[in-house]
């Protein structure tokens, strides 16, 4: 079947995946994965991605007691899952953790907080912390919830480079996982970050119960928003959340095809794999051919992440190098 249609723009040959083509990628038989990986790898190279893989690290700077009811989250108001709760960390603690990210070779370091939005005092303290390390690497990123343009401008002025805010899932499926805010609230925050002059990282969680068509639609919604980086997570069900263990997991091969699809729908965006990538099993080494340009290193918000040496060993086995 025809997966792609071709177009010639500004003397550059480019291939654009259609929604039907994207769905066909997700339905590709397992014995046809290798040609698909080769095509995906070639498309990324043609778009200027060198094959070097970037690392990002996060700090859970404020945890728990969230008023939102996202069904997948241990920190949600609707969750009884075990998790740590604590107020905003001090700026000194955040800067100390950022130095550890430097030692890991991370390209970005993100301050993450629970809750729908930070208080004015919390945002002021975060801005002061960012300004204290403005000219250092790794680059500052933040994931602070739903923000106004004024708040995003404050962060930009303080030295923030990138704002992270996931759509979580496709627009029509969003009410199934959250009722305390809307998909549009999230999309507007992404747009405001772009207006403020920030780079934007946005993505979501795969395996929440969305259909294949909804998974494809989310990829095109991210493309329409022109996000700089896509963060893909695969659901890790936690006891006590609205999506509990015991449900059928997305298979490793379907995970890989999902990665390929997002990379081909959004060929100019970075593609970063975060939570759940270990569930790829034997296909984990293939995720870079599938289009992945970055991975998250270290612990996540409410689950254990990867060790640095394990990630470096993975890059070596895949014939990749760490981005400088």
How would you explain this protein's 3D organization?
Helices cover 34% and strands 17% of the residues. It is α/β, with parallel strands linked by helices and 324 residues long. It has one domain: Aldolase class I (TIM Barrel, Alpha-Beta Barrel), CATH 3.20.20. Helix 8 links the parallel strand 8 and strand 9. Helix 1 crosses helix 7, helix 1 runs antiparallel to helix 8 and helix 3 crosses helix 4. The longest helix is centred in the N-terminal third of the chain and has 14 residues. The N and C termini lie far apart (40 Å). About 3% of the residues have low confidence.
Highlighted features:
324 residues; alpha/beta; TIM Barrel; eight-stranded parallel beta barrel; two-stranded antiparallel sheet; 9 helices; 10 strands; globular
Largest sheet report: 8 strands, parallel, barrel
Helix run count: 9
What is the first-to-last residue Cα distance? 40 Å
Number of domains: 1
């Amino acid at each position: 079947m025809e997966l792609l249609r071709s177009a010639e723009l500004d003397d550059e040959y480019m291939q654009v995946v259609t929604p039907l083509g994207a769905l066909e990628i997700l339905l590709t038989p397992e014995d046809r994965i290798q040609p698909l990986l080769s095509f995906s790898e070639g498309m990324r190279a043609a778009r200027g991605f060198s094959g070097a893989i970037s690392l990002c690290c996060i700090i859970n700077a404020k945890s728990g007691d969230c008023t939102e009811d996202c069904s997948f989250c241990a920190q949600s108001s609707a969750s009884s899952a075990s998790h740590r709760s604590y107020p905003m960390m001090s700026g000194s603690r955040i800067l100390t953790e950022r130095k550890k990210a430097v030692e890991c070779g991370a390209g970005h370091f993100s301050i993450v907080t629970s809750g729908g939005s930070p208080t004015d005092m919390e945002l002021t303290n975060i801005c002061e912390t960012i300004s204290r390390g403005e000219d250092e690497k790794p680059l500052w990123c933040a994931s602070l919830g739903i923000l106004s343009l004024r708040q995003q401008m404050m962060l930009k002025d303080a030295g923030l480079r990138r704002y992270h805010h996931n759509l979580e899932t496709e627009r029509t499926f969003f009410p199934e996982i959250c009722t305390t805010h809307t998909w549009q609230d999230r999309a507007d925050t992404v747009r405001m970050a772009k207006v403020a002059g920030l780079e934007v990282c946005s993505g979501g969680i795969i395996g929440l119960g969305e259909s294949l068509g909804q998974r494809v639609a989310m990829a095109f919604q991210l493309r329409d928003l022109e996000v700089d980086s896509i963060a893909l997570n695969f659901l890790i069900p936690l006891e006590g959340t609205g999506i509990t263990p015991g449900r059928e997991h997305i298979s490793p091969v379907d995970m890989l095809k999902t990665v390929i699809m997002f990379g081909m729908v959004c060929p100019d965006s970075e593609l970063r794999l975060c939570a759940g990538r270990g569930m790829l099993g034997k296909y984990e080494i293939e995720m870079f051919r599938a289009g992945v340009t970055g991975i998250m290193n270290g612990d996540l918000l409410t689950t254990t992440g990867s060790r640095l040496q394990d990630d470096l060993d993975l890059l070596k086995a895949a014939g990749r190098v760490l981005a400088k």
